[in-house]
Recover the amino acids of this structure.
């Protein structure tokens, strides 16, 4: 029997990533993510998870639509998030209960992120949580074995998921980067990927967010150097220095801490989501930031901390806070609006160690935030950042490494996916074996 695939979410647009793989009478769901723009709009611009029902979120297209696999519902034997970003794991608190007997299997850090969400929002799911180390296998049944192959990305413990079946392997690379100089953790496991290629791959499902960029994506070490150039190379004497970045990007936070120590500034992290991801990393001894950083997550303590910074002298502190996309309820936006006790002055520095996620809501929010900063005379440093996603030449290397029979582009709409289609053709795949999919569609591969 061949392998049947249902592309549930993340194929017609960017977000709510989820794919179901059916092998005879058993189904594995890969990723269970949120559509972040729709989710944030529905939850009043919250920067974090809040307790909503699956039905409520499904109505606003914020979660994958599992009605597409109603006929497979009783066959689901595992839910496998590839990593801890909310567009891949954020729907687990709401949707996993639709498949109550299926364990959630993912890397230790991803498990800790989930536990943190459950704890903070007092959410319970019936599904067992199983932590599987990177570069390990887990036997699901007589016919299906899971393997999580280590790869780099902008969050720790990201995996390329390999589903071993009697009909060949499915390789799921739905967020990855080939970073040869990671600043936290090891290089990708190229050796194992090459072995998997020799063993035979039936299908590769691969992200396409930057497949249109004709380059190899630069290393995180480049982003570290960019931070060094700004934080250590610009005269900030007597001025505030504020850095905002993705809360889950522990490698970037590690570099920011290093620069803060060289500046002899007291480092303070402000925001609930920063606390969540850092705590998850410390729980599994991946990092130990709290030896160098004061982390404040409670709203009432954030304001008293900012008052203390003002009183003791802003030049003595490095503030790392949430709000890099201009989210109205995040710390940075609230500081600008005067809702928190912090007075910006001309010449203060605000460093955005991120890119703007290209959706209209984020563009407008960031424009509003930056206008507020400029009004107060704050120096803005944008795009001190390198992406955690593969570019076109990284994808070419992956395709050549594993030599799949079939390819499905994922993690964006058709405009982006077309670049994987053309690349797959360049790599010698037959047109009939390159599948441009929509949400809710099915395809059989063999």
């Amino acid at each position: 029997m061949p392998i049947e695939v249902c592309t549930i979410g993340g194929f017609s647009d960017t977000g709510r990533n989820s794919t179901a793989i059916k092998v005879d009478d058993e189904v594995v769901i890969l990723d269970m993510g949120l559509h972040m723009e729709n989710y944030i709009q529905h939850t009043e611009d919250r920067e974090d998870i809040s307790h909503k029902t699956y039905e409520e979120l499904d109505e606003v297209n914020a979660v994958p639509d599992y009605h597409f696999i109603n006929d497979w519902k009783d066959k689901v034997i595992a839910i496998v998030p590839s990593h801890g970003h909310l567009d891949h794991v954020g729907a687990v608190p709401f949707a996993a209960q639709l498949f109550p007997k299926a364990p959630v299997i993912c890397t230790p850090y991803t498990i800790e992120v989930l536990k943190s969400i459950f704890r903070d929002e007092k959410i319970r799911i019936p599904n067992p949580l199983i932590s599987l180390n990177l570069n390990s296998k887990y036997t699901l049944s007589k016919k299906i074995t899971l393997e999580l192959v280590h790869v780099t990305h902008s969050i720790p413990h990201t995996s390329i998921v390999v589903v071993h079946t009697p009909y060949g392997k499915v390789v799921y690379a739905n967020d990855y980067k080939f970073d040869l100089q990671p600043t936290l953790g090891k290089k990708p496991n190229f050796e194992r990927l090459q072995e998997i290629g020799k063993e035979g791959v039936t299908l590769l499902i691969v992200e396409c967010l930057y497949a249109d960029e004709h380059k190899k994506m630069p290393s995180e070490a480049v982003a570290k150097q960019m931070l060094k150039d700004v934080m250590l190379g610009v005269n900030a004497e007597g001025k505030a220095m504020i850095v905002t970045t993705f809360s889950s990007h522990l490698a970037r936070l590690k570099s920011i801490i290093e620069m803060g120590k060289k500046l002899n500034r007291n480092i303070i992290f402000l925001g609930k989501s920063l606390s969540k991801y850092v705590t998850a990393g410390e729980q599994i001894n991946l990092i130990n930031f709290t030896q160098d950083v004061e982390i404040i997550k409670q709203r009432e303590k954030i304001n008293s901390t900012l008052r203390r910074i003002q009183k003791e002298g802003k030049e003595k502190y490095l503030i790392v806070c949430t709000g890099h996309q201009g989210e109205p309820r995040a710390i940075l936006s609230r500081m600008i609006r005067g809702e928190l006790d912090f007075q910006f002055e001309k010449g203060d520095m605000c460093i955005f160690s991120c890119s703007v996620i290209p959706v209209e809501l984020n563009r407008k929010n960031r424009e509003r935030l930056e206008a507020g900063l400029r009004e107060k005379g704050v120096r803005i440093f944008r795009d001190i950042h390198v992406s955690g996603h593969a570019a076109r030449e990284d994808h070419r290397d992956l395709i050549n490494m594993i030599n799949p029979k079939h390819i499905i582009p994922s993690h964006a709409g058709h405009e982006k996916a077309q670049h994987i289609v053309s690349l797959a053709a360049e790599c010698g795949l037959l047109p009939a074996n390159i599948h441009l999919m929509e949400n809710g569609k099915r395809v059989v591969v063999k």
Notes: The chain has two domains: 3-216+388-445, 220-381. The chain has a mean pLDDT of 94.
